[in-house]
Amino acid sequence: MKDSTWQQVQAGDNEAFQRLHNEHVRHLLNYGLRLCGSISTVEDCVQDVFTELWIYRSSITQPTSMRFYLLKAVRNKLKAQYRREQLFVSGWDDNSDTLVQPDFNVESSSEQKLIQLEIDLQRRDQIKAAMNLLSPRQREIIYLRYFNELTYDQICALMGITYQTARSQVYSGLKILRSELKDSPLLMLLSFLFFF
Amino acid sequence: MKPYSDYISYDAEAFLADPSFRAWIAGPTPEMKAYWQGLLKCYPHLRHPFGQAQLLAQGMESTWISFSQTYVDELFRKTLTTLPAEQADSPVAGRSTRLRFRWAYAAAVLFPLVSGLLVYDYFFREKLIQTGNAEVRTLTLYDGSEIKLNANSQLRLPSRFKWRSTREVWFTGEGSFFVQKQLEDDTGKKRKFTVHTERAEVAVLGTRFTVYNRSQRTRILLEEGRIALTDPVAGKMFLMKPGQVASYKKGDGTYRMEKADAEQQRPLTAWRSHLLVFENAPMTELKQRFQEVYGIELVMEGEEFKEQYFTGELPLNDTQKALIILSEAFGLEAVPYQDRIYFLSNP
Hints:
The complex is a heterodimer. Chain A is mostly helical. Chain A folds into 2 domains: about 5-85, Orthogonal Bundle (Rna Polymerase Sigma Factor, Chain: A); about 105-195, Winged helix-like DNA-binding domain superfamily/Winged helix DNA-binding domain (Arc Repressor Mutant, subunit A). Chain A is built from 10 helices and no strands. Chain A is globular. By secondary structure, chain B is α+β, with helices and mostly antiparallel strands. Chain B is built from 11 helices and 18 strands. In chain B, strands 1, 2, 3, 4, 5, 6, 7, 8, 9, 10, 11, 12 and 13 form a 13-stranded mixed β-sheet that branches. Chain B has a 3-stranded mixed β-sheet with strand order 15-18-17, covered by helices on one side. Chain B has a two-stranded antiparallel ribbon with strand order 14-16. The longest helix of chain B is centred in the N-terminal third of the chain and has 34 residues, at about 90-125. At the A-B interface, helix 2, helix 3, helix 5, helix 6 and helix 7 of A face helix 1, helix 2, helix 4, helix 5 and helix 7 of B. Chain A: InterPro entries: RNA_pol_sigma-70-like, RNA_pol_sigma-70_dom, RNA_pol_sigma70_r2, RNA_pol_sigma70_r4_t2, RNA_pol_sigma_r2, RNA_pol_sigma_r3/r4-like, WH-like_DNA-bd_sf.
C-alpha cells in the first residue's frame, strides 16, 4: 500500500502526494518544533522538504522508511539554518508552569488534552519534573522511538551517533527515572493513585 | 489484548513499544485501566518498568501537538503554490531531460580531464618505488625486465615517454636486475640499460646482476652476461665477467674486483628467496644489515660481543623469528626498549 502511494507520487499523482503529506506532516511539525520552537520556521522548513520531495521524486528511489527519510530532511534543514545543534526540548516549558502549546490552530487545548489523557495537576508536575531530568539527546531518542517507531539504526543515522551511544543514552535515561521514582514518593503516589 | 504472561520479561522500553500500552496512554478507558492493574497485581515486579514507561509515555503524549485537519490542508495548499509551474505540467519528462543535460555537461568536462590525467599518468609520470622494513618486492618494467627490491630500497623509474629514448633507472638499496635484451627499432643495435647509483653506473645490454648500494658500501655482483661498470668519481670503467664482484667502501679510491664463488655470492643474493645470510660476519656488519633490512637498531654492548662473528640465516619477512634466532645464537635475551633491541644476558 505504502509502496504504491510512493509509486503514484513518482508518477505525478497529486492526490497521492497529499495523502503522503497528511500522513507525515504532523510528525514532522512536532519534531521540528522541538528542535527549533518557532512555528513559522518549522512550517517553512517542512514545506521545503515536501516541495523538494516532489521536484526530485523521479530521482529518489523508494526510501525503506519514508518517515525516516523525511525526518532526516527536516533535521538537516533546521540544522543548516542554525549551523549548530539545537537542544531538543521536552515540550514542557522549563521556566513556566504551563505546557508549551503555541497559539495556533490545534485540535484541543492543552488543558483539554490533559483531561483527555486523564492527567491531573499533581501528575502533571511529576511528568514535567521527569521529562526535565532527561538530557536533550535522551529526549530526542525517546521521542523518535515513541512517535515515529524508528529502529535504533535509523535513530543513529538520523542523529549522527553510534548504536552504543543511543542504547546507553536510553539506558541511563531510564536509570535516572528509576532512581528518581525510587527516591521520591512518586512511585508510591503513583501506585496509590493507580490502585485505590 | 495479550495474555499477562507475555509481559513477564518486559522492561520500560518494551512497554513503550507495546501497541496496547500506547493505545491506552493516548486514549485511556476504564477497561484498559483494569487490564493493566490486573497485570501489575499478577506480576508485581513489572511495577517499576511500567511506572517509568507510563511517565515517559504520558510526557510524550501530553506534549504532542495535534494539528487540525484544516491546518494541515492549508499547509499542503501553500506547499503546492511553491512548486515550480512547469513541474506541475510534465514533471517527469522535464526533470529527466534537465538532468540528462546536466550530466552531459559534467561528462563533457570530466571526460577529457580524467582521460588526460590517465594519459599523463601512463605516459609522462615518473614513478618512485620504495620498499619498507622487511619487505621484498618484484617489479616488471615497461620492457619486461624484472627488478627485485630488498627491504628499504628505492627505485626511480622514468616515464614511459623517456623510456623510449633511454633505458635507465636510479637506485639506492639492494636490488637484483634481470634485464631483457632489446634492439633499437631503426639501427637494430642492442639497447643499453643503465642503473645509476651514488657511486656506480652500470651499463648493460641484457643480463642478470645484483647491486648493493647502502650508506657505507657499494657492491655489484654479475651473475650472467656482461656489464660495463663506471665509477663516475674516479673516472674509471670496468668490464665485468660473470661471477665477479665489484666492491667499493667509503674512503677507497675505486672498485676492487674479486672472483666470487657460489658460497661467497649467497650473502648478496639470498634475500631474493627471503633470507638474510651471514658468513663470519662481525657484529658491526650484523647490526648494520639488521638496521638496513628490518629498520631496527640492535644494541650489543659489552665484552662478550668483541671478536664475535655470526654465521647463519635469518628469515627476511619475519622480524620476530629473526630476533629469536639471534638471541638463541648468542645465548642472550632480546629486550625491546624505545625502538631498539637490547641483548641482555639471561638472569
